[in-house]
Amino acid sequence: MQVSLLGDEHLAAARAFLEARAETTLILLSSLAAHGVRLGEASNSGNFKCVHTAGEIHAVFCLNRRGNLLVETGGRTDLAAPIAAACVSEPIALRGVLGEWRAASSVWERLRGEHGYVEDFGSREWLYRLEIARARGGDAAPPVRFLRPEDFGAWEPVNTAFIAEVGMVIRATLAERREAFEHDARAQRFVGCFDAGRLVAVAHLNALHASYGQVGGVYTTPEHRRRGLCCAVMSALIAESARVHGLTHLVLFTGERNHAAQRVYESLAFSRVGEFALFFGQARG
Description:
The protein is an alpha+beta fold. The chain has eight helices and twelve strands. The chain has a twelve-stranded mixed beta sheet with strand order 1-2-3-4-5-12-6-11-10-9-8-7, with helices on both faces. It is globular.
């Protein structure tokens, strides 16, 4: 079994491996399509690598410029050691591991046990999938619109509050956050609800590949909760994902104890299909 940089000889097989597991690999697939297989200037670019034997792909992973390791092993946990070793030798400092629960948690435990990583944040997430044609609409609610690039000033404090509430740390610079927001706003991937000119609820289509999209950053400000706004922005994003982006399926993940969000997603016909992992930390010393 070998760990190699992903090259032309394995690219088709690696893409097929990821596409067969699209519910947990959309960030990898989206990055691969947007930035290719090698580290570039973009913050989401990185050196794609694979674990393989005789042309058969067993895992695909990428440590991007942000320091996030995106990993998929098809549920295998015995590949954690070579994946962790291949990443700690990269010039980019590894700051987190994201992926299907068994894959990501096994790699993170290896990083903690053998490479001295200390955890700042860890979350076991419930993974949900929606077939858009079967979606159920929410009740009537205030109007929702696409966010525009000039809405960054309204979105930034809402996103900061969201990150703080879930217990994570913002690592991107203000300039990087602005660039990423404006890019996705121009692509009509943010929807938001405003009250008296203030953004109070938002949802984001943060990764796309073929007919699948991934939803993230769903947030309503605390004083505006229990008014149906989460359902409103989600219903709008679902509709626009089909109309604007031609998607047929959406996936998202939410904390295993976030029962309020789970009820909203299930009311819209999302069904639970697996578990996802988010781990962040740094090497000791």
